[in-house]
């Protein structure tokens, strides 16, 4: 993988994590009003919208690092009708505005009840739109490892997994640090089950796609080898971490009913799960860029 691809690894993962956070924040509003009302607001690192805003700022910064001439970045949006890269930049802008609207609404106009659902729906839809556009950028016919069903599937799974994991950790921390007792353990349990399902799907799809990729290994291109060397080793490490993260998530789910007992231990345990998820997502995305090879013109 080229060194400048690392900026794309962090840009895509951070932006997709932000989309996932906003999707689950919107879901919380419509599923559990009691929990939503207890979520911290304003300049608080435990507020999901504020955290998403910060992470999106870092994502944009990483995207600039990939450009040869960052000062010319504004010119990239001039080709919306023909360039998926321009559409990606436009989607980032729209999503950033939507997150900012949620943050400002919850901070300054919480009494305007109609503004909150409108801004949340706007952010969730624009988040889905952003992930879809980012996925489309890489569906290039001359790059076989990218031009497949697995690219959008993995990108959306990253958004859902990172979003669900971050939301659970934020809610647990809000209860443990801010003593926000109105965030219901039942809702955290539901989010944890969703996370376990997403991790299961990601494990299965990763194994299926890797097996198919081995069957279509590029002939005559020595620098790409999917079944030996560093690439294959990282694949095995990622699958192992996925299984461990899934097992620990299920263990956490079955221990959650006793959340009032030694609550800080629950936070530390899930923080470990979140760390494992971040590591495997970074490995997965770095492998995505490392799988690059081009055929044809």
Description of the structure:
The chain has helices at residues 5-31, 33-38, 48-65, 84-108, 115-137, 150-178, 185-215, 229-255, 263-290. With 297 residues, it is mainly α. The chain has a single domain (5-290), classed as Formate dehydrogenase/DMSO reductase fold, CATH 1.20.1630.10.
Short summary:
With 297 residues, this protein is mainly alpha-helical. It is 72% helix and 0% strand. The chain has a single domain, classed as Formate dehydrogenase/DMSO reductase fold (Up-down Bundle).
> What percent of the residues sit in helical stretches (DSSP H or I)?
over 70%
CATH class: Mainly Alpha
CATH superfamily membership, which one?
Formate dehydrogenase/DMSO reductase domain
The CATH topology is what? Answer: Formate dehydrogenase/DMSO reductase fold
Main beta sheet strand tally, sense and closure: none
- Please state the CA-atom Rg, rounded to the nearest Å: 20 Å
Structural class: mainly alpha
- Tally of helical runs: 9
N-C termini distance? 21 Å
Q: In sequence order, what are the helices and strands, one letter per element?
A: HHHHHHHHH
Give me some keywords for this one.
mainly alpha; 0% strand; single chain; 297 residues
């Amino acid at each position: 993988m080229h060194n400048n691809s690392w900026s794309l690894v962090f840009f895509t993962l951070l932006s997709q994590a932000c989309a996932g956070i906003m999707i689950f924040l919107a879901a919380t509003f419509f599923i559990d009003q009691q929990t939503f009302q207890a979520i911290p607001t304003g300049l608080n690192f435990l507020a999901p919208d504020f955290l998403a805003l910060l992470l999106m700022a870092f994502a944009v910064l990483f995207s600039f690092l990939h450009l040869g001439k960052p000062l010319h970045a504004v010119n990239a949006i001039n080709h919306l009708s023909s360039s998926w890269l321009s559409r990606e930049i436009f989607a980032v802008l729209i999503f950033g505005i939507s997150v900012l609207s949620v943050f400002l609404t919850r901070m300054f106009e919480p009494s305007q009840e109609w503004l909150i659902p409108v801004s949340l729906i706007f952010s969730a839809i624009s988040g889905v739109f952003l992930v879809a556009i980012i996925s489309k950028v890489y569906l290039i016919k001359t790059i076989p490892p990218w031009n497949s069903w697995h690219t959008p599937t993995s990108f959306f799974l990253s958004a859902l997994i990172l979003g669900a994991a971050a939301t659970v950790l934020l809610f647990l921390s809000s209860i443990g640090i801010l003593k926000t007792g109105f965030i219901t353990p039942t809702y955290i349990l539901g989010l944890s089950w969703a996370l376990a399902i997403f991790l299961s799907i990601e494990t299965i799809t990763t194994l299926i796609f890797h097996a198919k990729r081995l069957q279509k290994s590029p002939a005559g291109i020595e620098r790409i080898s999917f079944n030996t060397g560093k690439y294959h080793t990282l694949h095995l490490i990622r699958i192992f971490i996925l299984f461990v993260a899934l097992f620990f998530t299920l263990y956490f789910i079955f221990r959650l009913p006793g959340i009032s007992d030694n609550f800080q231990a629950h936070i530390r345990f899930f923080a470990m799960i979140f760390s494992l998820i971040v590591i495997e997502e970074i490995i997965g995305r770095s492998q995505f860029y490392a799988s690059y090879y081009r055929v044809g013109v």
